[in-house]
Amino acid sequence: MSAFEAFKASFKGDLLTPGEQGYDEAIARWAKNAARKAAVVAFVKDADDVSRAILYAKEAKLRIAIKGGGHNASGASSSEGGLVIDLSKYINKVTVDA
Q1: What are the tens digits of pLDDT across the range 64-85?
Q2: Which residues are CB-neighbours of 58 under 8 A, at least 6 positions away?
Q3: Radius of gyration of the chain from Cα atoms?
């Protein structure tokens, strides 16, 4: 089993790679100049998924970008050939207990 297959088997969220349905939408950004073609977009469901994504990226020697809203015009939420940890699908709210 490849490292990616092992990562995919343990990941609870959704993973998209180039050519898959939804990939183009996943790498689109508010500012077109900020979009980069990531090797993997990881829609994480929880902290365990984030940890798995970081460990996989480290093992595969992929740069990591974090996407929240995707509104950073500098491209900080994208990674050419890297892994994007995307919070927008499942982790898209914050609750604060004052």
Answers
A1: 999 987 667 677 789 999 999 9
A2: none
A3: 13
Distance CA 28, CA 66 (A): 14
Q: How is residue 70 written in tokens? A: 């995707």
State phi, psi for 27 to the nearest 5 degrees: -95, -5
What is the DSSP pairing of strand 40-43 with strand 64-67?
Answer: unpaired
The β-bridge partners of 39 are none
Structure tokens at 8: 């995919």
CA–CA separation, 83 vs 62, rounded Å? 6
Secondary structure (DSSP) of 79-92: -TTSEEEE-TTT--
Contact 48/4 with Cβ under 8 angstroms?
Answer: no
Tens of pLDDT, residue by residue over 23-55, are 999 998 887 777 799 999 999 999 999 999 999
- Does residue 48 contact residue 54 with C-beta atoms inside 8 Å? no
